[in-house]
């Protein structure tokens, strides 16, 4: 995609967003369905257009908002009276359900409408190696060439962290995440910023979810193995004013017509309807097909919800706040002369991959700013210890 086209698309999206914000700021009208979603227009609009054709009497207003900010707004009371919440991070719905903020329209407090999985994208053509598995992302070849968005701003990245933690376990999962921190070029505030940076050549690899990576021109996408499928969901909200219209929209999304829209090449979602999904099977990655057939590859949103705040804040404290220092320490460790004692190098590596909190300890801590500051200081203390040990080896 040419730069001028990208600027034009961004400008149109900004105009639509500004108009939506103005409309949403006004009091809810009697026949207006209001949807809050983390999805961009290229995902939302095809579904809305088809729904409008069959329900011309229902007016719809859509607000695009990142998952974490949307959850905060709903937990605070849904003062703007949104009827539906529509997003890819399933644990967000468990959090809202636990707080009594969801309304049952006949499907339970929420319903799955699509499946996704996380991995990474790169620009094509691409000179040089490409990561094949999760552990390949830790290869020094890709040092400072990887970008991701912040899980405090991106439900997709929170799901990516949970994919790693659920597959590997708490300590081994955090060891991988902390080592990944040494590979990062940047932590973006937006999921789309990561892929735009890959498109422009600012980053070599962008961590992302499949439907974003697969629908960007000029990018290739690979699923991390094992593929762990993540359900995308939609739910009605307490405080909404149009429950009948909300149910009509959910019914449509789950209908054969709505599910078939997900197959479009510009959307590339995996439908939950097995009959519709069968139309996609020939083009699915074999690893995804295998994941659909094995229960061990399923994502556990309830587990993710129980540690929702803790995982995001641990990433902030142990990766984001000292990203430059952590990245530099990994570089210096790898640059040490082979004559440096192997035992001391191993000790430093253990420090750089050590999460000093068990899951129980993290979940038992108060969910407040004081805890975040305490965790940040613990991380910085570990990094200072590692730096002192590296400096001693460098001076020998």
UniProtKB/TrEMBL annotation:
<protein>
    <submittedName>
        <fullName>ABC transporter substrate-binding protein</fullName>
    </submittedName>
</protein>
<dbReference type="GO" id="GO:0030288">
    <property type="term" value="C:outer membrane-bounded periplasmic space"/>
</dbReference>
<feature type="signal peptide">
    <location>
        <begin position="1"/>
        <end position="30"/>
    </location>
</feature>
<dbReference type="Pfam" id="PF13531">
    <property type="entry name" value="SBP_bac_11"/>
</dbReference>
<keyword id="KW-0732">Signal</keyword>
